[in-house]
Amino acid sequence: MAEDERAYQRQKRAYRVMYPMARHLMKWLLNYEAVPGPKVEGPCLILSNHVTDFDPFLVGLSFPSHMYFVAGENVLRMGFLSKIAVRYASLIQRVKGTTDAEAALQILRTLKKGRNVCMFAEGNRTFTGETLPIAPATAKLVKLSRATLVTYRLVGGYLTTPRWSIHRRKGRVSGGPVGVYSPEELKGMSEAEVLALLRRDLYENAYETQRKDPVVYRGKALAETLETALYLCPKCHKIDTLHSQGDRFFCDCGLSMTLDEYGFFQGTDLPFATPLEWDRWQTGEMEKLAENLGEAAAFSDDDQTLNRKEDDHSLTQLATGTMALYRDRLTVGEHTFPLHDLRGIGLIQRQGMVFSTADADYAITAQRLRCVRKYQTLFEILKRNC
Hints:
Largest sheet: 7 strands, mixed
Strand content: 25-35%
Strand order of the largest sheet: 1-7-6-2-5-3-4
């Protein structure tokens, strides 16, 4: 038996063992209910929105049959846990912040072998409760796969474990298939039509859902580390002056509010009702900043560490110092990276930042709390406008 087939059989057995255990664990941790998935002839490509670190378990609970999961390369830098994942979980590696052609090819090869694949179509986990944009390349992949497409939507996961938070809440999470599309149906659709159906089926706005069907998400320190998602104050218009303590979120200028158990801001003279509304506003302000950015840095952070990713997924420290983003370059210590050389900027968990050039992949780490979302947001605006 070839090594690939031996690994496949081993991982299928592990999937069968983990399935009932995961069902009980996700019910206990997240109060999760999964709607059973459809029985599909032939391999299927399952595309889902991305709201928690547990999403592979959540989606998998609707599908008793074994599947491969597309995962970020950072999963392979967790020491012993990575070794367990590689041996017993079926992973297809993808580098965050890039359009990974090798991952796409591996997905297609896996489907061609008759094996199921699950991918989180946004390529990243939402910071604000709204499904992120889905790239046109994903629709192209669906067309090339010639497999049955199953779209899947998770609801309630963001408010249970907000990406920016260090605390889990207890509320309600559910997930289930939205649509099933045969290879014949997909063949008759254009890439634009496939992209439209993906954006429709996978779209979730946690706050719209809350307004229609309010659910209490109980927890402690509900606003803690929200400043890793929100970085621009609407009152004083300064960057990196926002702080959190317990349920309270406030700015050095005096702006203050609390975050309640429904996920909404409470207080007097509130500029926004939700973090999502706040984020839409600050993104618009980043557009204005990009238009008027001169020679000075847009913003910077001290005490940052630049690391290069090695072939074995380890990190080699290259420099420490100030990280700054200019209209044409990113600098870290003495290292300069022209923006036109960067393939993309990705985010890991709350505070990790990764980017790639044609020659290497890099990771930025830091010991202190800071917001790296502003770098990704402004970078994408600058790249789009250049």
